[in-house]
Design goal:
alpha/beta; FAD/NAD(P)-binding domain; 5-stranded parallel beta sheet; globular
């Protein structure tokens, strides 16, 4: 039985593993996909909102070209470097399917059922993030071949009529990138105007200018009624009216939901609108003794984002201190939250 098993190899899971390398504990680490799979799934050449010093981990500086905000590709290369530097033994492609607490009478700890067999650990840390599934809108035609819930390559939409549904950063950024790649973009949003706090500050002015000059067609106060081959039907949410929009392809960029399976199988209580795991914010231990949560997983399904990489570094310090009884070695955990006065929620 291992002393601790980390589930998830995103930035915070990696930082926790690095912080535990000299703890003397036997630590296992599994990841369902590739290293930082959530980052892998970002659209190509996505640029981070946060500055490099805020998303650096494990005491390793993140250096970018011209000291600009990191691109997806730069950050992935950086994370590979951190894992290599600490020689972290992460098992990739191992999906955890259930976590079963073992009664104290039978030895305690956890029985962790994975796609590669059963593991046993005294403690488990879930650093699984919160972007596991697409937030579906539930309209007819949502599963048609020309409809997608994520942007991959803007080039694919060159000289095609593209309908983008959504009004936060993913939709706004996709609208700009696909427009510049030669797509004829229509943007449908259920609100009357964009939430400026939800869109990167360098994206919104250009988007507004393109809408104002009718280079991007903006349909506020609209929702998708149905999707069809070659067109979509939108309905107004302020008046009894429907609009038919021609579309060769559709991007439903309406957000993500968290998979609660591991919390539920372990007996973790879920609370609030986000169904976030119940935990002690001083230790990150859930209501199930020995089961911890790190990173954005602690927020549940985020409707309004409150947890990001930069204000989750503290989770590493709290877990290490509670598990080992000792503080993290100086310089191993990013201090961005303290430096910038960032709240955890």
């Amino acid at each position: 039985m291992q002393d601790l098993l980390i589930v998830g190899a995103g930035p915070i899971g990696i930082e926790l593993a690095a912080a535990l390398t000299r703890s003397g504990l036997s630590v296992g680490h599994v990841e369902a996909g590739a290293l930082a799979q959530t980052v892998v799934d970002y659209p190509k050449r996505t640029r981070y909102f946060s500055s490099p010093d805020r998303i650096a981990i494990a005491g390793v500086p993140l250096v970018t070209f011209n000291n600009e905000k990191a691109l997806r590709e730069e950050y992935l290369a950086y994370l590979r470097g951190v894992v290599t530097r600490y020689d972290l033994p992460i098992a990739y492609g191992v999906r955890v399917e259930a976590i079963r607490p073992v009664p104290e009478a039978d030895g305690g700890g956890f029985r962790v059922e994975t796609s590669a067999g059963v593991r046993e650990a005294k403690r488990v840390v879930l650093a699984i993030g919160d972007m596991h599934g697409f937030r579906r809108i539930g309209c007819p035609g949502e599963d048609l071949p020309h409809v997608s819930h994520r942007l991959d390559e803007p080039h694919l939409h060159f000289r095609r009529r593209l309908l983008i549904v959504g009004g936060k950063n993913s939709a706004a950024e996709a609208a700009l990138r696909c427009h510049h790649a030669g797509a004829e973009v229509t943007l449908s949003y259920r609100q009357a105007a964009f939430d400026e706090d939800a869109i990167k500050y360098w994206v919104l002015p250009e988007l507004k200018a393109l809408i104002r000059h009718r280079k991007i067609h903006f349909l506020p106060n609209t929702e998708v009624a149905s999707l069809h081959e070659g067109h979509a039907v939108l309905r107004s949410n302020v008046q009894d009216q429907q609009t038919r929009v021609r579309a060769d392809s559709v991007l439903l960029l309406t957000g993500y939901v968290q998979d609660k399976t591991l919390f539920e199988t372990a007996g973790v209580r879920l609370e609030g609108e986000n169904h976030a795991p119940a935990l002690d914010k001083d230790t990150m231990e859930t209501n199930v003794p020995g089961l911890y949560v790190a990173g954005t997983a602690a927020a549940g399904t985020q409707n309004a984002f409150q947890l990001f990489i930069e204000n989750c570094h503290r989770h590493v310090e709290k877990i290490v201190r509670h598990v080992t009884g000792e503080p993290v070695a100086e310089g191993v955990v990013n201090q961005a939250a303290q430096t910038y006065g960032l709240a955890e929620s």
